[in-house]
Amino acid sequence: MKNNPLPIYLDHNASTPVLTEVVDAMLPYLREFWGNPSSTHVYGWSMHEAVEHARGQVAGLIECDPGEVYFTSGGTEANNLAIRGVAAANQVRRHILTSVIEHPATIGPCDWLAQHGYSVSRAPVDGVGRVVTERAQEFLGQETALVTIMHANSETGTLQPINEIAELAHGVGALMHTDAAQSCGKIKVSTVDANIDLLSIAGHKLYAPQGVGALFVREGTPIKPLVIGAGHEQGLRPGTESVASIVGFGQACEIARSSLAEEGERVSGLRNRLWGLLSAAIPGIAMNGCPTDRLPNTLNVRFPGVSGNALLAACPGIAASTGSACHEGADCASEVILAMGVPESEAIGAVRLSLGRLNTDAEIELAGAELIKAWNCLV
Amino acid sequence: MKNNPLPIYLDHNASTPVLTEVVDAMLPYLREFWGNPSSTHVYGWSMHEAVEHARGQVAGLIECDPGEVYFTSGGTEANNLAIRGVAAANQVRRHILTSVIEHPATIGPCDWLAQHGYSVSRAPVDGVGRVVTERAQEFLGQETALVTIMHANSETGTLQPINEIAELAHGVGALMHTDAAQSCGKIKVSTVDANIDLLSIAGHKLYAPQGVGALFVREGTPIKPLVIGAGHEQGLRPGTESVASIVGFGQACEIARSSLAEEGERVSGLRNRLWGLLSAAIPGIAMNGCPTDRLPNTLNVRFPGVSGNALLAACPGIAASTGSACHEGADCASEVILAMGVPESEAIGAVRLSLGRLNTDAEIELAGAELIKAWNCLV
Asked: How many Cα neighbours within 13 Å face the side chain of A247?
């Protein structure tokens, strides 16, 4: 692998590199400090303090009280805890509202609830992949325990009308959860602005290591633990804290907060440049998702007359994804793109190009040229 | 903190330091490589390969097929997955057998099952903290879905009769799970020798980072996932893999495997020396747990006439634990020690001294002297 230059990384929505500053923050908790944060001696105290410092950094990013941040092993666990934990704590209401464009980490626990006595509704999306608020509203009622809708879609980047839907949810006495794994660190996500009750974050989507995340739970929200054991994380998430990873996660949140606007502007400039290159050269190319209300780093395009998998296979200089959950090599269209009303014959041409902090102007020019060349060869 | 020398660390059963070789193995996956192991490009392939290499290293330690190792966020999650996952997959049998000396990570899911239509029995222990096989057998029947008994007790180090109990469990058609978090890396734990179906390991008990562990699930064992989402870990444990931590965990398992006998002998020598010092100087001191069949690093003693908490508070040069789940400062006896039939007035004097790789002869001499001096001052 070292003999060939690595392809240009345009798959940040799948996983981000860990920032150098993040690794540097973690290293003392791998090399110098150790101990169990629950231990009542100096080794434990140092570890406990590190966890609480990180909790404050995460709270700073999403503008909440540190006591409302519960560390988890990542976004998937955070979603499971939110969805199944709220359902378990509510013995009366037995309806969950979600959408047709959720991540498997939301679909999974919703399906589980559907198999265990709950009814689950899935709100549709419009042509840009945005949940239709009016249609969502139709599903809401006195039976609704929880509404769980992602903050931004991971494939198209389209931002969802979370605030409006949260208001509707609260209007019927339901709680609002949002999976903000793709949004946090890319755009401002505030629990103050967005009147939501629960919010999931994943470390490895914002330049922290994999295997760490958090669930924001607004104070007073009834919720039960998913994993059961000792009293860690106020009893909501037992298990010895993953101190080094939590420290890295906190550092990544602080970096994200301090550079959100600047980096968002830079990366959206690169993203728009890439779209400019592609749309000028490829007749019939189209964008999937909302051109305006969208994550700044995400460009999902459908190439005419080719499959996304075939196109990426013809671009060894680029690492990206079709965004679908297909097995390697199989050509099938993304459920998210299909849900937007895109015909299957077109949806199959979708490619997700998700940019990030390490991408440069030069890389974008190269990537654009390679995609255009490959498309011309294939059609 | 840096101004005073750190106390001698005798709390390895709470959490171990991360070995330098383990951090070194992790660093490339924090600094050089990144990507989602599920991604179908070179970034993903490197991460995937690293996870599979580590899976082989874990399998090497416990002598199983790598395909039987499922990575989790730690021991607590592994126990939850084993206990609730097996119960969920068995729609007929509704009885669980555990013991009176389990960790909260086992008590928790068992209590949860007891609240959800299962009956849970708890086998008693004898005077050295060993589960009484004959008494355990009395609880077993055609209703028993699972027997879950820890491999070695974390407070006393007493080894449990896992092989005998597994045989009895299988005799009635039940599955056998053991929480080997404290044993793995300290003594040989083999899924070949021990005829068990499920086995939990925790990284931070064997010199790997916190926040990573594994569940061994013998091939063909019916089990359902606890966390639900995408298809990671054969669908049994979804969520993007914690690659760097998994790599460190694998490395720690390989180091443990290659130095198990040698390090066990060294550390038990230190442990026995410490007991020799204490027992020679303190009349009426007693050992909690089995003097012979015990983890090589663990010494649980009860000091006469003092509480363990008071004694440790008088020993600023030592970092250890009373082993009880009490809140800081509160004087209450360990449930484990009480279950062994030790009177509460004596049990309150229990202190767990758990040694490890970094402890030296000199440290043990110093620790022994400090404990003896503190005891003499207090009584």
From this structure: 22
The ipTM of this complex is: 0.96
* Ramachandran bin of B84, using left for φ above 0, alpha for ψ from -120 to 50, beta for the remaining angles: alpha
Q: Does A15 touch chain B (CB under 8 A)?
A: yes
Residue B33 near residue B43 (C-beta atoms within 8 A) = yes
pLDDT at A29 over 80: yes
Contact A250, A21 (CB under 8 A): no
CB atoms within 10 A of CB A43: 23
Contact B76 A244 (CB under 8 A): no
Q: Which 198-227 residues of chain B touch chain A by CB within 8 A?
A: 202, 204, 209-212, 226-227
pLDDT for res A5: 84
Q: Answer yes or no: do B228 and A46 touch at CB < 8 A.
A: no
- Contact yes or no for A230 and B35 at CB 8 A: no
pLDDT of A18: 98
Which residues belong to CATH 3.90.1150.10 in chain A? 8-17+260-378
pLDDT digits (tens), chain B, 379 positions: 345 689 999 999 999 999 999 999 999 999 999 999 999 999 999 999 999 999 999 999 999 999 999 999 999 999 999 999 999 999 899 999 999 999 999 999 999 999 999 999 999 999 999 999 999 999 999 999 999 999 999 999 999 999 999 999 999 999 999 999 999 999 999 998 778 999 999 999 999 999 999 999 999 999 999 999 988 999 999 999 999 999 999 999 999 999 999 999 999 999 999 999 999 999 999 999 999 999 999 999 999 999 999 999 999 999 999 976 655 556 789 999 999 999 999 999 999 999 999 999 999 999 999 999 999 999 9
Contacts of A231 in chain B (CB under 8 A): 104
In chain B, which segments carry CATH 3.40.640.10? Answer: 20-258
CB contacts of B148 in chain A (<8 Å) are none
Q: Please, are residues A149 and A123 in contact by the beta-carbon 8 Å criterion?
A: yes
The per-residue pLDDT for range A154-172, each reduced to its tens digit, is 999 999 999 999 999 999 9
Give CA A90 to chain center in angstroms: 26
Cα–Cα dist A152/A161, whole Å: 9
B354 Cβ contact partners less than 8 Å away, ≥ 6 residues apart = B10, B11, B12, B13, B14, B157, B297, B298, B299, B320, B321
| Residue A6 contacts B, CB cutoff 8 Å | yes
The shortest C-alpha distance from B308 to chain A (Å) reads: 13
Of B253, B290, B326, B377, the catalytic one is B326
Q: Do B39 and A319 touch (CB under 8 A)?
A: yes
Residue in A with minimal Cα distance to B25: A30
Chain B hits for A238, CB-CB cut-off 8 Å, are: 76, 104-105, 108
| CB contacts, 8 Å: B9 with chain A | 34-35, 43
Residue with tokens 């070789």: B21
Architecture of domain B20-258: 3-Layer(aba) Sandwich (3.40)
What is the spatial distance between Cα A177 and Cα A98, in angstroms, rounded to a whole number?
10
Q: Tell me the per-residue pLDDT of A317-341, one tens digit each, with 9 for 90 and over.
A: 999 999 766 555 567 899 999 999 9
What's the topology of domain A8-17+260-378? Aspartate Aminotransferase, domain 1 (3.90.1150)
Question: Is B242's CB within 8 Å of A6's CB?
Answer: no
Query: Per-residue b/e over A336-371, b at no fewer than 16 CB within 10 Å?
Result: bbbbbebeeebbbbbbbbbbbbebeeebbeebbebb
Cα B43 to Cα B35: distance, rounded to the nearest angstrom: 5
The verdict on whether A377 is a catalytic residue reads no
Check CB contact under 8 Å for A228 and B204.
no
Question: Across the interface, do A76 and B210 touch by the CB < 8 Å criterion?
Answer: no
Chain A: residue whose CA lies nearest to B208:
A30
State residue B329's pLDDT score. Answer: 52
